[in-house]
Amino acid sequence: MAAAVHFHFHLFLLSTILSFSSLFSIDPENEALLKLKKSFATSDSLSSWVPNQNPCSSKWDGVICNKNVITNLHLSDKGLSGKIDIEALMQIPSLRSISLINNKFSGPMPEFNKLGALKAIYLTKNQFSGPIPSDFFSGLGSLKKIWISNNNFSGNIPDSLRKLKFLNELHLENNVFSGPVPEFDHDIKSLNMSNNKLQGAIPASMVKFGANSFSGNDELCGKPLDKDCDLEPKSGMSWTVKIIIIIVIAAVVAIAFIFMKSRRRINDDFSARSSENHNQNNRVNVVQVHVPSSDHNRGSEHSTKRGSESKKGSSRSGGMGDLIMLNDEKGVFGLPDLMKAAAEVLGNGGLGSAYKAAMANGMSVVVKRMREMNKVSRDIFDAEMRRFGRLRHPNILTPLAYHYRREEKLFVTEYMPKGSLLYVLHGDRGISHAELKWPTRLNIVKGIARGLGFLYSEFSSEDLPHGNLKSSNVLLTENYEPLLSDFAFHALINPSYSVQTMFAYKTPDYVQHQTISQKTDVYCLGIIILEMITGKFPSQYHSNGKGGTDVVHWVFTSICDRKEEDLIDPELKSNTSSHNQMLQLLQVGAACTESNPEQRLSMKEAIRRIEEIQV
Ligand SMILES: *[C@@H]1O[C@H](CO)[C@@H](O)[C@H](O)[C@H]1NC(C)=O
Ligand SMILES: *[C@@H]1O[C@H](CO)[C@@H](O)[C@H](O)[C@H]1NC(C)=O
């Protein structure tokens, strides 16, 4: 379990789409990126950016694509400096997010305002300086996230920020901004203006962000800071100035109030739209993970404030907003670390969508959002999760942490760069497929069998000790050791949702006979065995049965016709000395996929017969 772990749900399908479309498209954006690279003074870290390649299909470092178009440039920590060729970036109309965090750029704010479709700008930890023009953001109406903290920006906070309707995250901390704290027309979820040179009273509507968002500004006063504006003894301001300020503030508040009232309908529209946007985000490959935090008194979806209040790391208190560590062998982290992580959508498969989250401490995890998991009470759920966290077996993926909300659970596991068995067998133009020689495949089947043996003793009273066994839920370590994931959820997931999503419910046991039993897992094991021997994508994995090969039927008829040799994956054929082993395993696979559960092997028998096969 040394290597990281990865859930690959439908990544296989996704990567097929990507590679297919890349065959048919030329890449007008290759040149634009090379121009951009040229504008950097140092670009050693971008050696993967070379001419005559499609940046998406060639996986250029830092270039994130969705369906073969570039959506994000993720150039954090690359030691970059020099100019940023905005004209070049303008040739990439699909670009939605740019991250240059922790580089060595300096000088004034680049003209990102020419990229009107941007949704996120991350410039944290550079040496940008000088004022930002007051109207800079007026052409950037889609912006949701602006992180320009830890630079040397000065002058007033640009007025145009206030009018960004979708702005959700604004981080200006650790700069030298001066002047007043602006008031925003709409609700921002995450805001930080700490450690600047801001002055004057904090507007009443901004109090809710808490002192942590304004500290380190010596000349700021009023709530939520401890410093009362009126009682400021050494204020050099004359009474007239104070009265004028008070009148101005009152007028601003009154105007804002009237303005807000007249905008209410628009804002209502926006809340509907914002959930839509959120879904769209899931389709873009890199997003900031929005880990919903506690909601016991407000329905607030992204209350970062609460997240950062929650105890960092291993919280045993089990408060509603916490991330509960189940297994700290790989390190301890908290909800705030996840919220700050750069995330990549891995897929929207089976039980929920999954993201890879690369945290600032260098650790990468997979966060899976699970819906419809309210079959048991919260206490029982917690007890079950802790039990999961104690599982230790070389072929079992032990979860790291979970987060509980009524509507949704987050399930955190280690990230595995190699991906799933499904992906290695069928994904990525079959490059890795050839790596899977016979001894490796046999070893994987044996590892799966051992993991199942363990689950069948740990969860022996369950109908489905695994319940969702398929090659996308078998992850591979660097050494091709298999790890079972997504197991034993049957007791936790709402029954109607299980029927829709778990692979056990796609088997003949359920489809034809409406029953499930421990023999159902045996059937699923059989599919994996046949998949590994034939090298074919089983049609059983498609919910509508369209596409792929009906491996069960094919194996059955070939065995009847005594043409078993035809079934063996051409990649394995050259290994003639092992054909007997292959045929032996094939028989086990066939006996596991008997459509009548009575005639099917038991799990115990299947494991015994797999172990019998000599490597
Ligand atoms: C930041 O700007 C100030 C002047 O505003 C200057 O004195 C200081 O050296 C700058 N710091 C960096 C790291 O560029
Ligand atoms: C704002 O930034 C400061 C300085 O980096 C940090 O100490 C503080 O915790 C941050 N506040 C919030 C609310 O994130």
UniProtKB/TrEMBL annotation:
The chain crosses the membrane at residues 239-260. GO terms for biological process: defense response. Residues 293-312 have a biased composition (Basic and acidic residues). Residues 272-321 are annotated as: Disordered. PROSITE patterns: PROTEIN_KINASE_DOM. One of its GO terms (molecular function) is ATP binding. Residues 340-615 form the Protein kinase domain. Residues 1-23 form the signal peptide. It comes from the Eukaryota. GO terms for cellular component: membrane. Residues 277-291 have a biased composition (Low complexity). It is found in: Membrane; Secreted, Cell wall. Keywords: Cell wall, Disulfide bond, Leucine-rich repeat, Membrane, Plant defense, Repeat, Secreted, Signal, Transmembrane, Transmembrane helix. It is a peripheral membrane protein. Pfam families: LRR_1, LRRNT_2, Pkinase. Belongs to the polygalacturonase-inhibiting protein family. This is Protein kinase domain-containing protein.
